[in-house]
């Protein structure tokens, strides 16, 4: 079986077993086993319809001569699924997430994996969510030219150090990568774009904020250009020890990568460059329309900004960070205070109708790339509106959307993250496994895949410690 198909099918199975969990939790009828298998069949059909064909990788070999290279010196890369029909002149450029490296040591680690080398990247990946190619699952952007830009520089495409460290062989050239990739896409048809979006998730979401106006400036005059940041609005907040470890970390990122000259001048003229890595200090100055998709209890920020390991040496926050339902009342109070800080930090961009906002109360991180949170029957909603509809209505100027959810745990549609790999004792699938209610070949196959439970699916690739 093709590896990409194998990965997609693996995702299908994980979703199906989550569906079984949901189905069996609420069923109260006889013949349960038949109902379970019917649910699997329904789920499989639905997901096969949702799945797009794997999209191949494209290496920007011409970028190497410009010094626009990944941490290890390999060429940058992207995946392009070409548009058609009414979307042939529309472009959605989505930037991959993956945290940052703040010094030589952490960047050397990334140099040897997909976050620092295009040599380590999968040759094909499946598109879902905002990148999905099916109308029913992505009605506003399905037939656009959809691009996923791979992330391999470690500083949200802001670095540009001319010298190469001969001892380590590290290149800090993220800003050059961004420019080289966009120039290639312009030559491939984006230079005639009528509509264009720059989006991204996590560190890619931050990149979509930092580069939004630059992206707009490179597109044809007269094109409708907007930006979407998913889980990219990182805030400068104190952690549970009272320190600002994230501020120190971002300052180190900026210093290591030489990012200062590529950060918004409106910010660096007033504040230290490290602070200008936080959107709260410059987002109100962005001229291009921007939509923010973010959880007020962003799980990455809770784990790495509010309660990082360095601020919690005794691990008192560990269970809470793994599963929000295990948080103590005092911890929930601290998280509610963090939400208040987040809303205050992002409040500066809410005054303009050109700005959109979907701030839910989920314990989540990155919601536009996953089909289950972008647009499915049980996706998170605000004001009875899914993320997909909110973003689409905003982009096409059908309806403005600036909604902030009520505090946790008020929203029953949330898909809250569960990080604990051993935390499946309450899973109906786990119970059925122990009771041998599923045929042993399927059980063996699923456990060989390492998917005893759907909870926490597809999130680990975005979880990088600060």
Automatic annotation (TrEMBL):
Signal peptide start and end residues: none
Source species, domain of life: Eukaryota
Entry-linked InterPro entries: PAE/NOTUM
Chief localisation class: secreted
Entry-linked Pfam families: PAE
Transmembrane segments: 6-26, 38-60
Enzyme Commission number, as recorded: 3.1.1.-
GO BP terms in the entry: cell wall organization
Gene Ontology CC annotations of this record: plant-type cell wall
Family per record: Belongs to the pectinacetylesterase family.
Physiological role: Hydrolyzes acetyl esters in homogalacturonan regions of pectin. In type I primary cell wall, galacturonic acid residues of pectin can be acetylated at the O-2 and O-3 positions. Decreasing the degree of acetylation of pectin gels in vitro alters their physical properties.
Name of the protein: Pectin acetylesterase
Organism: Malus domestica (Apple)
